[in-house]
Amino acid sequence: MKKFRAFTCSALLLSALLAVTPSVVQARGIVSGRAFDSYRLPNTTVPTHYTLRLDTDIHREIFDYTGNVQIRINVLEATDQIVLHSSRSEITHVQLRNGVGLNVPVKNFEFDEDKEFLVVNVGTTLQPNTGTYTLEIDFTNSIARNDQAGFYRSSYDDENGVRRYLGLTQFESVDARTSFPCYDEPGIKTTYDILIVCGIDYHARSNAPLRGIQLLEGGKKLSTFATTPRMQTYLVAWLVSDFKYEREVLTDPQLAIASWSKPSSVHLLSYSVDASKRFMRAMEEYFDQLYSMSKIDNVAIKDEDYAAGAMENWGLVTYKESAISYGPEDGEQRQVGVVTIVGHEFTHQFFGNLLAPKWWSYLWLNEGFARLYQYYLGAISHPELQLRERFVTGPFQTALRADNSLTVRPMTYYTETRPSISRLFDSIAYDKSACVLRMMNYALGERTFQKGLRYYLQQNKERGVVEESNLFDSLEQAAKEDAVLPISLSIHEIFGSWSHQPGVPLVKVRRDGNEYLFTQERYIANTPPEEPFENSWWIPISFSTPSNNAFEKLPAFWMPPNVSEVAYTIETVQDEVVSFNPHSTGYYRVEYEESMLRELIERINKDHTGFEPATRARLIDDTLNIAQSRGSNYDVVLQLLNYLQRETDYVPWAVAYENLRHMQSMLRTNEAVSQLLERFIEKIASPLLERYGVDHRTGESASVGELRTIAIDLACSGSQSCNDDAQSAVRSLASKKHYTMEDNALLCHGLQLSNAEQRKALQAQFSQALSDKNLDNPSAKHFLLQSLSCLGEDMTKVQSFAKYLLALSESDRTKALHRLLVELNVPLAEIVQSLQSELSQRRSNSVYYKHGPKLIFEIARYVTDPADVQLLSSVASSYDSWVASEIEQQVNANLNWVEQNVEPLKNALTRYFDA
């Protein structure tokens, strides 16, 4: 049933004041105007400008605030209601004025609590084309909330141990309405004048540059900001704090880039300022588009207080502090992290901010571009970090795994409610969309794709609101100008086949002499449905041979949808082999007929350097996953993986590592087969450990450090010297101030070799270090938090499983769960019970409760025991039914994997070691 809160006043008072002050709160239905059968605003009125003033007392540890918002609106349809969004705010006064400042009578206002509407009932019918009206609303609210959304509080302890508070915003997707009344939809863009009152020793920052400061009575001041560009509500942002900054002012054109943090961490911000400068200028040049304002701020927020991770607010970007902090001893891996996160949020300044999605259906137009160009523009701004190759080991792998289920959604997907909008922020919006955009980049050629994106920005920035057809139009224009597509094809047809259909294609290829024959179907990681899929795509087929690499990234031809088989001739010299999709430029898997696959594997075992690293990675990933989807061909898989004994490149090893970890997780309760797999893994990884050792070397690339970490993870138990180094890492933990990625792997392995007394001592060290107020390096603290899970069940003496896991980023949480459940054999039931206990103590609006489903889904990937299934389902029951449905799907996939893979894998491993 719909819930409404209605506020009314007498006709006498109304006529006297022509404004509304609430005095009564009661539940009732709307009695006038239209019925709201949608979560979308009726849009009979639209805002043309906001003037927002906030009065805060955070400096005095008073967390209530007052606000006044004046919204200029235009009437689009005759109406006696003004409908906008509001939640959490207590409305104290509402007034409506016409274009010449005269009051317009307001009957009352009321709330639709389900849809989070504020409905202002007007005493007359407002007509379109009658000029501008101003809706003025006074309200009160509080930043003392525990969901890390809207306008909320954070804190830090200064060098004297004094707690200092600050207020910040996190509005995406639909939380601007929880901080001030507004038209809170992504396709509604307008300008803002923002004014903020705070303590004299504090300062306010917002989207636009500071225009002036006025001193007020009571030790306070008013900061007034310049008018913003036209933007949507979820990008509105402000910060009230006593933070300090590092800044650099660029010229030609002028741009002030600053990074802000608590005072004791300012020295860790220089790299983020330099990364921002380099990325911004590379982005402006690449897209031939200048950034829209004269300043951009990065703000570092305490990790525990920032569940969002990072947010692209126009001109005021926020991050977890560990994400943009960098010290001189942190190494290249931290540089990769800073550049890619800054690059992601800065790319949004064009894709998402300058061009806003018409509705959340097109979220991928924001996140897909940001995910792609954090790597591809990062490779231009920071070529030393080799970021392009990391796309294949990161987003590409993540997308393939996320997109292989029966119920996955397509990229363009319509939904309306708050929970379902939140669910759109998934790997499909980020990773798959980036992969499809990257595929089009290679399919059209990068120069044509770049030209199309420049058209896309130029042709749509004035309107500022886009849907996918706008992108397709611009790419089509560039493609036709450069004649890079067959005349019969259109971008709308090609790209639409990817954005409107779920799933990833499987291209099957067989050979008849020099003729290669192709078919396509939808790839599913487990048993496909009884009724065959009807999905079909326009697929750019690329290939490479030792004597012909002309089409290793460009398409040799487009494979059309809904065609039973396509033939293509490839001339080869004697003994040449052909590899398809060799650089993973196409978003599809390749299944070779048996004879072709065996020939490729034979060649790669003879001389793997005859294939590019990306080609080797693609062959590993496709072969392994296709084998697991059918529970067959493991002798061939092991023969392929056997070559890794000679592999020294990061890309193939990173892809193999991910796949091997998945197999480990599926076998975690089967000791016999797990031991066989571990024996095999140790054999193929030991040469890598021998080559790189365990010691980090100053100046090494991030890829070398990650290769060493993989080697330690996979092969340390078989090396006495590595075991000794691991135990040494445990003993030296307390004395270290800086940590490398190798330290974490060694520490975790060393703890498995430690006795109970050593583990107890280390537990105390962790507890002391994490509570040490002198430990002010976010990277060091992040390392300790990552490593806490190495204690296994003993970590609960420091922090509960649930509280620990819920506080981690998604990537860190994935690693921690694998460590706990697979490497350390923590009973899954203990983690689930911890989650159940934690959530039972949390209100439904807490950040822990909001992120509970994500952790439940992560845990579900490890469930193969019926008792665990029942326990997990009981935790999910406190959420909507879709949570339980997703868990059921994942568990069924796990059970299918076990049923069809355990015996074939066991038999193949046995034959391998008997040979």
From TrEMBL:
Annotated GO molecular function terms are: metalloaminopeptidase activity; peptide binding; zinc ion binding
Q: Where is the Peptidase M1 membrane alanine aminopeptidase domain?
A: 271-498
Which positions are annotated as binding Zn(2+)? H344, H348, E367
Q: Known CDD domains for this protein?
A: M1_APN-Q_like
As for membrane topology, the entry says:
Lipid-anchor; GPI-anchor; Single-pass type II membrane protein
Q: Where is the active site?
A: E345
Query: Aminopeptidase N-like N-terminal domain: from which residue to which, for each copy?
Result: 46-235
Q: Required cofactors, per record?
A: Zn(2+)
Q: Which residues are in the ERAP1-like C-terminal domain?
A: 578-806
Tell me where in or outside the cell this protein is found. Answer: Cell membrane; Membrane
Residues of the signal peptide: 1-27
| Keyword entries, A-Z | Aminopeptidase, Glycoprotein, GPI-anchor, Hydrolase, Lipoprotein, Membrane, Metal-binding, Metalloprotease, Protease, Signal, Signal-anchor, Transmembrane, Transmembrane helix, Zinc
Q: Its family?
A: Belongs to the peptidase M1 family.
Q: What is this protein called?
A: Aminopeptidase
What is the species listed in this Swiss-Prot or TrEMBL entry? Anopheles quadriannulatus
